[in-house]
Amino acid sequence: MNFLLEKTTAIQKLLTRAQNWRFGRAKYPNGVEFSLWPPFAPRRRQRLEATPPRPDIDEMLNILEFPDPRLRTKAQPVTVFDQALQELIDAMFATMYAAPGIGLAATQVDVHKRLLVMDVSEERTQPLVLLNPRIIAREGSQVYQEGCLSVPGIFADVERADRIVVEALDRHGEPVRMETDALQAVCIQHEMDHLVGKLFVDYLSPLKRELVRKKLDKQRRSASAA
Ligand SMILES: [Zn+2]
Question: How far away, in angstroms, is 120 Cα from ligand 1 center?
Fold first, then answer.
């Protein structure tokens, strides 16, 4: 029994190792995982944008809601890194934290620039801003129940890449490159969809999307009647 158990464990270990190699992952003797596939090769962790939330901003931006046609606008790259941009980023963070949400794309506040802000930390202490983001590598898949500040009160499972490598610019126009997974990877993919006019409800069947639209209509009617 023990022997069999040991043998099974050994086979499992081999299988796991084979699978890891297939996904281009391996481990150092100290247990730290590294990547064999160039885009995921070890490199210094991308520093997170250390911009504290601005409690002094009390003017929140208006968040467009599905099915507002302006949410379908394709955003243009950010080319000017001026004071107005910094103010927009701060206002977007304030609006996102107040909502509360974990991510907000400029499209959602009717600014059609390739810009998104997010913070997936539980303590809400890791604000991240990405300008002109591009996903240069993706692998695996994960299903996450997503929600959206533009589709309030609706949640649905969406399948997305599990690990991604993103290249973008920070708020001052400096290039950043980050490798991420889990919720942060989901959030980046969700927000980047907004920048090309896509919403998470687009992944649902037309029938389900219609139900979402009706539910939101009803929510708005009862909110305006109250
Ligand atoms: Zn969204």
Answer: 13
**Centre of ligand 1 from the C-alpha of residue 43, in Å:** 30
Q: Is the overall model pTM greater than 0.70, yes or no?
A: yes
Give 72 Cα–ligand 1 centroid separation in angstroms: 12
In the predicted structure, residue 11 carries a pLDDT above the cut 90? no
E strand spans, 13-127? 25-27, 33-35, 103-105, 115-118
Look at phi and psi of residue 148 and say left if phi exceeds 0, alpha if psi is from -120 to 50, else beta.
beta
In the reported structure, the alpha carbon of residue 116 is separated from the centroid of ligand 1 by a whole-number distance in angstroms of 10
Contact 108, 194 (CB under 8 A): yes
Annotation says 191 is catalytic: yes
Q: Are 164 and 189 in contact (CB under 8 A)?
A: yes
Q: What is the pLDDT of residues 104-152, one digit of tens each?
A: 999 999 999 999 999 999 999 999 999 999 999 999 999 999 999 999 9
Ligand 1 (ion): which residues have CB within 5 A?
148
Note the pLDDT of residue 30. 52
